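User: Hey, my collaborator sent me this sequence without any context and asked if I could get a structure. I don't really work with proteins. Can you help?
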Amino acid sequence: MPNTRDSLVEGLADLVQRPDDGIDLPTAALVVARVGYPALDIDHYRAKMRDVVGEALAKVAETPVADPVNLARVVFDDLGFRANRDEYYDPRNSYLNDVLDRRLGIPISLSLVYIEIAEACGRPTEGVGFPGHFLVRDLETGQVLDPYNGGSEVDKRACLKLLNAAGLKPQQWKDEYLAGVGKRDMLLRMIANLQRIYTERGDAERMSTFSAMTARLRKLRESGTAVPMQ
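Assistant: No problem. I've predicted the 3D structure and written it out in structure-token form, which is a compact way to encode the shape of the chain:
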């Protein structure tokens, strides 16, 4: 795929013009990563994502997981995926290729990895677009987990702490903060994170590409070409 801005934007749009459950989220995230890495070998990192899933499946085969918290231990303890607390705003935390190479990330990129592994292990899981801190929900048990904090289970008290960290007060709580989001929403949020980073860095070229990606995905939604985002 050529790496002009327009080709990247249209390549991403092509991947999301389908029902949400048919979107290949890792591949779409790797197209986003080509903004930072024009020569990125997407097939190589798709295979690397499959290898990570295979690692998890092998661990689960040795010690079957009874619930999502146990699966989180496999992902974050055994496989070593972890939060990058020292350099939170490093764009590599948002590029899936780097997350797979370094096993470091921020809430949404670690959530993507967890969701892919959970689905492969037969545990349907969705993203939760909590303000300022992406989470995941196991659709069988309803448990909400925090991949940035080792997959720990999140209760209302923990949510209020996260809300406070996002600059909101407890009385501003809305149940919709724990609503599930689809894959398009995840992509848009990942892109928004990167757009903010490059805006602060004064990188007009990358900022412009991420802005164009956002506009294109939103246009698809408004035109009805893509299934409306959840």
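In plain terms: The first strand starts at residue 82 and ends at 83. You can pass these tokens on to your collaborator as they are.
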